[in-house]
Amino acid sequence: MTNPVETHWSSLMRAANRGEEGAYRRLLAELAPAIRASIRAKGARYGLSGADVEDAVQETLLAIHVKRHTWREGEPIRPWVFAIAGYKIVDQMRRRYRHAEVDISDFTEILPAEPDEDPTTASDMDRVVARLSGRAGEVVRAIGLEGASVAEASQRFGMTEGAVRVALHRGLRKLADLRAGMVG
């Protein structure tokens, strides 16, 4: 039996990948609370703070944006989304607890299989992000490409964490607009 949420999210992602900006906005708006709840539940077991959870949510949404072309339309979207979220939880724990031991049993479902060749190269990403100007571009580069947390970007750019999140969202929106212009 097909999960109606799965079907709906998959439909929105297919539409988004065809360039329907409204579908992409709805998808991200619907994914964010589900991702947040999942990250909060897993992160709580390891003592991640609310800010760490929010960083992982933002990084997950950024990764979904950057990697959405890698989702296979014939495959369920939920495992793909929550695998990305799981990786971002692990990344957040690595940054937060550089020497802590983490029980990987909670993450066995997302341990990678044989890696497929990633068609997105660093130079491609650099070219896309270079089209963003100002602080939004700097924030997207720091968080999305360099792996900085929201807190680290906040310190680096002398901004509040809230302002970093706003700049990240603006940068992602601009990337979506740029992509829509390329697809349309």
TrEMBL record:
GO terms for molecular function: DNA binding; sigma factor activity. Residues 125-175 form the RNA polymerase sigma factor 70 region 4 type domain. Residues 44-98 form the RNA polymerase sigma-70 region domain. Pfam families: Sigma70_r2 (PF04542), Sigma70_r4_2 (PF08281). SUPFAM superfamilies: Sigma2 domain of RNA polymerase sigma factors (SSF88946), Sigma3 and sigma4 domains of RNA polymerase sigma factors (SSF88659). InterPro entries: RNA_pol_sigma-70-like (IPR039425), RNA_pol_sigma-70_dom (IPR014284), RNA_pol_sigma70_r2 (IPR007627), RNA_pol_sigma70_r4_t2 (IPR013249), RNA_pol_sigma_r2 (IPR013325), RNA_pol_sigma_r3/r4-like (IPR013324), WH-like_DNA-bd_sf (IPR036388). It comes from the Bacteria. GO terms for biological process: DNA-templated transcription initiation. Keywords: DNA-binding, Sigma factor, Transcription, Transcription regulation. Belongs to the sigma-70 factor family. ECF subfamily. This is RNA polymerase sigma factor. The gene is SigD.
